[in-house]
Amino acid sequence: MNLMLKTAFQRYINNFRGFTREIWILTLITFINRAGTMVLPFLSKYLKEDLNFSYAQVGWIMVAFGFGSMLGSWLGGKLSDKIGFYKIMVFSLFTSGILLFLVQYIRTFWGLCIGMFVIMTVADMFRPAMFVSLATYAKPENRTRALTLVRLAVNLGFTAGPALGGLIIMNLGYSGLFWVDGSSCIVSILIFTILVKERKRPADLNAANSETEIPASVFKDKIFWIFLFICFITAMLFFQLFTTLPLYHNEKFGLTEFQSGLLLSLNGLLIFFLEMPIVSFSQRKGIDTLKIILWGSFLMSVSFYVLMINMWAGILIVSIIFITFGEMFIFPFSNSFALSRAPKGHEGRYMALFTMSFSLAHIASSKTGLEIIAAFGYQANWFVMGTLGILSVAGCIWLRKLVQKEQN
């Protein structure tokens, strides 16, 4: 038994070997930054309880937040191609840290709409630049695993952040959140600039595409736009985890915030222990990326259909397991597919649009879900979300055929 456990542990550890020093530093600063992300989980609560805004006003500030995120993603990608990812990463994190210190002093509705839009524009310039940096600092054969490693850091950081944020609110009030969040941005980027030197993108970044003709402009790449549509739908389903599902836990089954939190922790734990082995296994076996994304879309769809069985609270655990496996099959592989589509010199633009599909899904997910629930109830929402998942599966089948045709 001990030998079996030792072998299993050794295999798990082996999944984390072979990364460059820069990738480990990127993972560390991602963890510090995400663990310090405390304003976002409590933003609507802060606006409602501390500043006494109406639900409608809170909604509009969140819309400004979402559009800032979309603009930032596009600018970050475009500028990464023009002046390099390194400068964008440093500017984005350092400046958003300073802006977080300042925004706590804005108390008016219009001031906060503008403030949140500006902060998210600057902050989300970081994401496409970071994706391009991973492609530069990781060995070609490790790129998907490197993306997975950074996703693990994000998940671990998000597990720690809200808990620490709650303690800070209790002891220092909401202003403490802005100081800690801003400081985490500045500290993480200082560590990055001290330990990691700027490097040009390697010529082999798009070696996988040498056999296929990819349009020079991202706007003419039909395959990529179908792929973005699939990303948008699956992200829309995923964000239900943070918008409609916690409400459903309480209203239908009477779960407390703590019990809802435990269900979300199950999602984080499964990802921490299983995502890297899944990615490593699929790469060793040479399983087609789009085939894995297809199965992930199917599992996400099932996770909502099972919620229509609403007589048993245990179905919530079953649903979380399905959505988590869907997430593990979709997100790391969709990241690497997006990068592999980009022609040399266009990586930033491709990753910008990829990131924007998530920002748009974030805006659409809560609004759509809550409107359906208000008009027709939870069951109707689960049916609509499950059916959107099936639409995503159909999109994956079509996409695979187009890619095979392009390669032939």
TrEMBL record:
One of its GO terms (molecular function) is transmembrane transporter activity. The chain crosses the membrane at residues 21-43, 55-77, 84-103, 109-137, 149-170, 176-196, 223-242, 262-280, 382-399. It comes from the Bacteria. The keyword Transmembrane helix applies. It holds the Pfam family MFS_1. It is a multi-pass membrane protein. The keyword RNA-binding does not apply. Keywords: Cell membrane, Membrane, Transmembrane, Transmembrane helix, Transport. GO terms for cellular component: plasma membrane. PANTHER family: MULTIDRUG RESISTANCE PROTEIN MDTH, RESISTANCE PROTEIN MDTM, PUTATIVE-RELATED-RELATED. This is Predicted arabinose efflux permease, MFS family. It comes from Flavobacterium omnivorum.
